[in-house]
Amino acid sequence: MTSTIRAVIFDMDGVLTDSEPLINAAAIAMFKEKGLTVQPDDFLPFVGAGEARYVGGVAEKYNFSMDPIEGKHRTYEIYFELVPEKLEAFPGVVILVDACRSAGLRVAVASSADGNKVRVNLQKIGLPNEKWDAVISGEFVEHKKPAPDIFLLTAETLGVDPAECVVVEDAVNGIQAAKAAGMRSVGVAHTLPAEQLQAADVVKQKIAEIKISDLAPTL
Length: 219
Fold this sequence. Notes:
- With about 220 residues, this protein is of the alpha/beta class.
- It has 8 helices and 6 strands, in the order βααααβαβαβαββα.
- A 6-stranded parallel β-sheet has the order 3-2-1-4-5-6.
- It has 2 domains: about 5-20 and about 90-215, Rossmann fold (3-Layer(aba) Sandwich), CATH 3.40.50; about 20-85.
- β2 (about 105-110), α5 and β3 form a beta-alpha-beta unit.
């Protein structure tokens, strides 16, 4: 891909914030309330696809009858109780976002999570909505990752061509969505092993290792 990169689109959970263990714990607690014991790894195939699919996919695995929307809402209630004391940004996140701006790149968040979760998370890590050129959450698209819809909508909102965007993702679903959107992608192995992210153009162990040259090689 040779287009000049003009915008960096960050996934949120597992990229900007260490929220994956928290939402995992919240979902496990939600299922326990309903009488089902599930395992942390049960959720891995559904990371990045939005919380309704995150809990709904696990319910399907166990043939457990549950309304995924109701399950999502209860999971969020438990999650929000954990955020004030336990949610943090990954080291290097604020520095990288600032470096992107200094390089003249537009910056956006595109998360399959609901807007209230996105807002709470970004506020907690010191990068509230108003610090981004666009913040797109799951309610804005019908088809979640691995469909490309959320990334295409983000590019449209930013006023840039999809080929001029690079996506930073921690999940296979997200990298597939970026590829389907015709965007460059950088994977960070915060949530999954690096070998599972090899479809990305570049893979780093941590977001702190990402350089502007990884995002926009022509700059």
